[in-house]
Amino acid sequence: MTYFIAFGIIFLLAVIVLQIGKLSELATKIRGEEVVERSNNDTQGKALLVFMVVFLVACVASAVHYKNQMLGYGPLTSASAHGFELDHLFNVTLFFTGIVFIITHIALFWYSYKYRSLGNKKALFFAHDTKLEMIWTVVPAVVMTYLVANGLIVWNNIFPTLTSEDKYLEIEATGYQFAWDMRYPGADGKLGNKDFRLIDPASNTLGIDWKDEASADDIVLGGADKIILPKDSTIKVRITAKDVLHSFFLPHFRVKMDAVPGIPTSFIFTPVLTTREFREQLSKFPEWQLPSDPEDPNGPKKWETFEYELACAELCGKGHYSMRRIVEVVSKEEFDTWMAGQKPFYAVNVRGTDKDPWDGKKLFPYEIKARGFELRSTVARFVDDTTGTLSNIVNLDHIFYLTGSSNLNSSISTYEMDNLVTLMGRFPKLRVELAGHTDNVGDAAANLQLSMDRATKVKEYLISKGVSPDRMTAKGYGQVQPLESNDTPEGRKKNRRTELRIISK
Q: pTM to 2 decimals?
């Protein structure tokens, strides 16, 4: 029924317009076409003059009213270091273009009024005016040269050339319909390689190359996670897309760069205000004192709920709005704490699966570092213990030997022994025994000697790294102290071990 009523209203309006047109034609015939034309010209000229005044006043008034909402946020202060230069460039450009805007619109509407045809004026023709042509050529040329040169200077400042000696955090943003995946480097500070041919919708949506050791500690944040950034740190963002054109847009940091499938782009910026500090700035503006939820006048104010955001500035489909992600800027200490709590994607989702090129056998540097922290924490608890209930034995799970030999089998063993060197330096009063153990395969006497040789090998390495030999003893126990049954391969593997036994602390 509603559609019929709407159709009827439109039909009636069309009839009214047609009737008005017929009446206008009759009036023109009665009054004369020239008289009507002059009257219309006069009316339109005056109306355009009135429109000019209302239009320009409205432009200026709206600019003043919304000055604290420009560029997507409150105060005219950037949240990034390069943003101040961009704001200055924007203001300079706005100054010159604003002058041109006002002059051209005044001329447009004033000339429409002044030179309206009333039948009593004759048009004047002149071929050219050299002075006028010089003015409108030279003045714009000078202004444009200044704007372009200033823009190039700002551009070069925004995109510095980073070298291997520069300290910066490189992260990766991958856009797709309709979210962003963020990848952070782990302890090694490097992002691993990617290959689109490795993309697996179930287990590897970014196509990360797990054969690249730098990938093993990379941290991947899904579309629902906050993006955390450290204050006063140079950040380089690799930007790419998996399907259609997107745009990486951080309005508060003056960052905008297209995300193009197959063509990686990047941007460099430095956050200078944490989220808390930016909220404090917003709290000084009256428009940010309004309730965040109009239906809850006693709830938090707008400045209290403010969040930096990542948005997509390209219309990428019907779910375009859901590309928004919250960005939180924190202190470096808070960022380091947050990073320490993140689990590498490889360790959580790939290690030990059929997608693991290392078959779970390789230990990566970030894991060695974590192992060293765990080792020191275990010993520290024993040193601080006053109850006497904690064990004085720590298994050195990552020291490996060639079968039937005391020769080390992996560089991982070196990492583990380096952790021991650090441990002995951290606790200078510590005296320890390095105990070697074997399984029960082979001759018992040979196993006893083998365990002694292996313990001695570790002791010799520590001595070579500066640990005093007076603080260490090496002893082999052979096969007489198994942890588990030697009847299974898993049990025998656990029984072949090197232990750190704390003698005194």
A: 0.66
